[in-house]
Amino acid sequence: MKRLFLLGTVVALLAGWAGAAENIVFIDLERVFNEFYKTQLAKSQVEVQQADIEKERTVLVDEMKVIDEEVNTFKKEARDTTLSEDIRDGKRILYEERLLELREKQKEITEFTERRQKQLQMQITRMSQTIMDEIRQTVIEYAKREGLQAVIDSSSRQAAVGIFIYTHPDIDITDTILVVLNSRRPEMEEEAEEEEAEEGAEPEEEQDAQESKGES
Fold this sequence. Notes:
mainly alpha, two-stranded parallel ribbon, 2 strands, 216 residues, elongated, 6 helices, 76% helix
């Protein structure tokens, strides 16, 4: 129903703006999201945190393995008929104690994994939403500045098959939006400022040269 409504809306827009088709553009938001430098930075942060979770979990698993080995050892000794009854009773008590510790450690690992993965997923969701909000705002600002009538998402992020199977490359602004977004990368802004500074310095150098020529 949602897809049919969107398609009907677009058809109506196209019919109403037949004389201004050049003001209707398409953008692949999925590609913009994936190629935006902030998305890449966010993915790197997630990978680091995922690695940290695995390290912490490995420590817990190693501790569990030690307890598990003790459980197996005490269990075997508790059944060893070559040992005295008193020794076997002592081993049986140790076996039961370690078995409880093993179950507690297994529970701890399960709860730790679920808790940390849930926290990480919530962080991924927040970062993704923040990045997508910035992309949408950039698209809106660009559309208003350029006097566009509509910007249509041609990606298939929410459907197995997108509504728009083909869009002419001349009215796709994906590359343009990527340039605008990625130009905000800190090092790109610094380079731009340096270029502006150099351009501003050239007229002064030319003026000094002319003054020196006039004095000679």
